[in-house]
Amino acid sequence: MCARWKDHHRFEQLKKLNRKSNIKISWLVSKNDQELLDQTERYFIDLYQPLLNQTPVPAKKIIPAEIALNKTLIRLSKSNVIILGIASSDNSSQPTVYLKYPVYGRRGLSGTVSSILKSDNKRATCLRWKKYATRKKFNFWKTSCNGIFIDVSPSYPLLPLPAITKFQTLLGVEMIYIQEPEFTTILEVCPFIEQQHPGVSVFTEDPIPRLWTNSVESLKKR
Q1: If you ran DSSP here, which 8-state letter would residue 123 be given?
Q2: Is the N or the C terminus of the chain less surrounded, counting Cβ atoms within 10 Å?
């Protein structure tokens, strides 16, 4: 019964009503007789005149993936997530942008990052993050937006970042990135990076095409 009501199409409306006045759910045990069930339902509808009966069910506002990702990147950037680089597409894969979150010893931001990405998976959007690995208690995540993969993984061991940080824009969000010659130096010092991310190179420009953002902005200006 509990599971049925959690998936009920009126559940969100009932939750809002319950904040104002407690709602109680009652039921009758009846024979498995469809005609009897229909008669009983009509009787109680006429008797109690349910508030939501015959009213439209509000549709959820669907958030385009790139708009959802933009909001996520804003939150990730505030958690010191950086752009490591990008691997260009070949005949068998999409381009992949590699993001790294900091790890200090056995501590890191894995919990914070996971919470951010899990919250995306609960929103009314087609953007979905998949946890594809866990190593040393740190999670690895991946999603796809407008034909581009986004990979979020721990910076373990911690990457030696340059003293002067530079920023690049990813889907409208400014994020720290690693430029040359520091990028080449890091690959030499940390050869495991190329093993983890074959074909990774310096991030030079935002590869994610705008399929919705420009349309939304143009509508706002009208």
Answers
A1: S
A2: C
